Amino acid sequence: MVEQYGRVRRFLPCLLENIEFSAAPAGESALEAIRYLAAIRSIRRQHIDDAPMAIITAPWKRLCYGKDGHLSRQGYTLCVMNKLQDSLRRRDIYVARSERWGDPRAKLLQRQDWHTNRVQVYRSLWHLLTPGMLSMRWPGSSTRCTNRLPNILLIIRPFRWISAENARN
């Protein structure tokens, strides 16, 4: 895996210089690691013990730490790139001015627009505004369903369904 560092090293400076990443709250640790890599790109050290450690998961520890116990620049960089890819897919990290990789929250209705269009959105999704609206929408329906429940109770038998009445016989 560490052999892939040569490939990553070629495009990493261009990626870090030209693309401005932002993060949702779930992506803050990954964004901190990306900014750390951008800050140390001109430093030639192979061991970077002051890096943010929050993104290093158990499977990555073997690749990130050398035999001497120091944090390897190569392993850490690959770990950060892997975390970046995962975070972009989950939309925890996004690119501010991008159509595909942009902030998904930017397209949501905000405050006043949400309150103005809330009822229409709920109706288009067939959702109730509040749970109490079920009884207002269908008066007595919950009572009728619970009264009829013993008659329509189904008992699971291997490979067939039987109503409660037939099960007693």
From TrEMBL:
This is Tn3 transposase DDE domain-containing protein. It comes from Kosakonia oryziphila.
